[in-house]
Structure formats: structure tokens, C-alpha cells
Amino acid sequence: KAGVTQTPRYLIKTRGQQVTLSCSPISGHRSVSWYQQTPGQGLQFLFEYFSETQRNKGNFPGRFSGRQFSNSRSEMNVSTLELGDSALYLCASSLAGGDFETQYFGPGTRLLVL
Amino acid sequence: AQSVAQPEDQVNVAEGNPLTVKCTYSVSGNPYLFWYVQYPNRGLQFLLKYITGDNLVKGSYGFEAEFNKSQTSFHLKKPSALVSDSALYFCAVRAPGGATNKLIFGTGTLLAVQP
Fold this sequence. Notes:
A: mainly beta, four-stranded antiparallel sheet, B: 115 residues, 0% helix
């Protein structure tokens, strides 16, 4: 079974621009979560989607948004980019987001904001 | 509030020696605990998890972890370290119940295995 895929793998943007990142979960997985990883803040939860609905959101400004499509693929969008948005963005999928399910992570998208 | 602590930023061990990477947690109720490993420029790879049952959990690549409820710890162990085990290790917790799949991660421990 193919793993979680994320595109693009690398991005360079300038301040004020917006960016869209894509995540394709493992086949059959319906829950997709997004995390931001930075050297200073570590791994932080952004949001989770299940059946096209946002189920939970982390403590990030409204510039960070996401959505999920009927095929469970998910996108996240960051508008009005700031230097501090430079990070590795990781997507994870699980079957249905149940309590004891394992989340499987993709390779990440590394975003650099100049 | 849920939290995870990894008290050591880095652990150094010689190849062939046993290794331990420490993790303590704070959560209401019974926790679900996970260990992930991250190699340079890669995502997180799942190693093992504790849900319930036996306190000693066996995972991938010869790793195991011991759940200790009284000490609220979930230390990762391996009997004999390999140079290829050198990577960044994350402990994570998820509180049971609730409509969320959110994981709370520790700050990570860099494991360096010397040949």
C-alpha cells in the first residue's frame, strides 16, 4: 500500500504571498491531520479533517486553513505568509481518527519564506 | 492539560550498548502513547504505541518501550544500539475519548550512536 504523499516537497515563497500544500492519505484512510514542525516550537498540531469536516483546530491564526475532499485528500492553505511560517509541514493519516489508531506521516513539505 | 516531556535533548551511546530514551507524560485518564522516529529531511516513522495491556510494548527495528503508570513514563529502549539508529525520536500522547485525533509531541531527543 502506498504511504502518505505530500506535494510539493519544497517551496520557496516571499512574505505576503499565499501557499497551498497537498496531502494524499493512505488508501482507505479518512482522517487527515496537519502538523507544523519548527526548531523553536517543535511539532504543533494545526488541524484535523474527517469526512470533509474539520474536527479540531490547533492554536494557529486564521491565516492557516484547510479542507478535505470527498476522496479524503486534503489541502492546507497559508495566506499572507510571514517569515515565521517557514517550517516543515507534515500531514498524517489514519483510518477514522479513533482513539487508539496509529497516525502515519508523510515526508512533509518544507516551506521557506523569504 | 495534556503534555509530554523528553528531558534529554541528546543521548549518546556506543554501538552495541543498550539505549534508553526517556519520556514522561501528563494526561487525564488512561493515556495512549506513541513513539516516532525522524531521519534527516524525512517525515515521522511510527515505532510503537501503548494503548492498554502489557506494560512492555515491542515495536519496529528491535525497539521496545515500557509503560509505567505510577511514574507516568514511557521510556523507549533497545538492547543493542546500531549506528543506523541515530535519528530524532519523538514521544507523543493522545488523551482517550473526544472527537479528535490530535497528538501532543515532546520536544524530541536526538540519539547519536557512535561506532
